[in-house]
Amino acid sequence: MTEAIVSGVPNMFDQPTNVVFIEEEWGVGIKAERDGDGVLMGAELARCVEVVMCEGAKAMAIREKAKGLKEVAQAAAGVGGSAERNLHDFVRAIPCRNQ
């Protein structure tokens, strides 16, 4: 959402893409279905929370995959990780106007 705000793109346009990654590609969540008017009903939200928070096989698989992604993200964000290296590369690529 922060990226959508910063880029000036309404966040409703990035959400369908996020659903594909979260549910289908990474397997760390489930898609909430909306009614015919595009409204997320309380019962559907409750269903989604129950699926993720229960002790069923799907919930356990989601938690295990989320744990793996957390480890990858922490490594990327850590000292010497890819996020830090990319930030340094970006800063070095910006011409300094004060020189």
Report on the structure:
The protein has 99 residues and is mainly alpha-helical. The chain has a single domain (2-93), classed as Rossmann fold, CATH 3.40.50.2000. It contains five helices and no strands. It has helices at 2-7, 15-25, 42-53, 57-77, 82-93.
Radius of gyration: 19 Å
Q: What is the fold named in CATH at topology level?
A: Rossmann fold
CATH architecture: 3-Layer(aba) Sandwich
Q: Class in CATH?
A: Alpha Beta
Describe the global form.
flat
Sheet/helix structural class: mainly alpha
Name the beta content range: under 5%
- The CATH superfamily bears the name Glycogen Phosphorylase B
Secondary structure tally, helices: 5
Portion in helices: 55-70%
SSE order and pairing:
Elements: H1 2-7, H2 15-25, H3 42-53, H4 57-77, H5 82-93
Brief digest:
By secondary structure, this protein is mainly alpha-helical. Helix content is 63%, strand content 0%. It comes from Panicum miliaceum (Proso millet).
